[in-house]
Please model this.
Amino acid sequence: MDADLVVVGGGPAGLTAAATAARHGVRAVLVDEQPTLGGRLLGQLHETAGPDGSLHWVDGQAEASRFRDDAIASNVQALADTEVWGIWPRWSVYLNRVANGRLSARALVLATGAMQRSVVFPNWTLPGVMAVGAVQRLLHVHRVIPGRTAVVVGADPLAVITARQLALAGVTVRGVVLPPREAPGAATPERAIQDLARFSGLGPSGLLSMIGRFARPGAGAAIAAHGFPRDGVKVWDVPLMLRRAAGRVLGDEAVRGVEIVDVDADGTPAGRTETWEVDTVVLSGGLMPLCELALVAGCRAAYVPDLGGTVPLHGPNLETTAPGVYVAGSITGVEAAAVAAAQGRLAGVAAAAWLGALTPAEAAPRVAEAREDIIAARRLAPPFLPNIGAGHGRMEELWQAAHSGAGVSAGGDT
Model:
């Protein structure tokens, strides 16, 4: 099978990139490993506050359906439930479910998104321990609850939102607690408060709004951490316990409980330890860009912590160091769906121009508009990562260095 453009990833970035390129006459094929296109949107359902303070529900499945409909109307050929297992230069894309197992393309857009970081602590591999993304998909795609009684480990916005979703589905949520201090990437109470503060304006919880007002000025988060009640406070009727952490999961063949440890304001274990009887432990360790296919395609990459991990080097039009290969969405740094979609538009226009479907004069205003859309989306969306602006600046430096002959600083390039 031949195409002008192959887009890998069926989330908002990939769907928008494919639809944008196809509308300019590009033969676009989109590939995604999931049976239903939409990416992480499929598992999202949460209430948020608009600019005027009014509340409304964000239905990820409805948003995903709009992206899918736009791609189909734009004559994108979509291959769902299809995995990409290899990419060879100029460009051969190898698949697991196509007749000859191979797509030939002149250009690529890689929109593979992000993966969840594991929260590693004793017995975290027992059946009944699940990541938040898996729980959201169970609830909102398959309409299945993961258990009857749960604890959520990882006091970040995604953890709190998922705890509420579980409660709305009828699951008893004992509380949202911190990961063990020894777990990779574990947050202190102060850091958890800072993370929650970034999302304080988007939800209907009065407590989150209070945290946001209190944590932003100077040492506010540290003061809030010291004064945070050990028994927690209710957010959407779910106990948020930033002075308690998971110690270990209990059980032999499946989860039967979790050890909960009191912690000081800096996250150091202190005071009592108790056992909660639960059948489900939900882990929220954050997200990291999923860039393996970009590396397979020969794109240079760099480790940029402020973007979430290792990301492909990319320029102002989301071009990579591999000719004809573009990136969009959380593969470039973990951000909101609206930002991913805006990046998809830029990548689609840039790929169409590279393929000759747009002249330079035609492409220039479209590229400029797409860049402005990304800026606008970032202005409205809450940042998932605290220093992502610095991450974008670092990527600009790395891109300039890679194209100036200066190279990349030691340890930063892959």
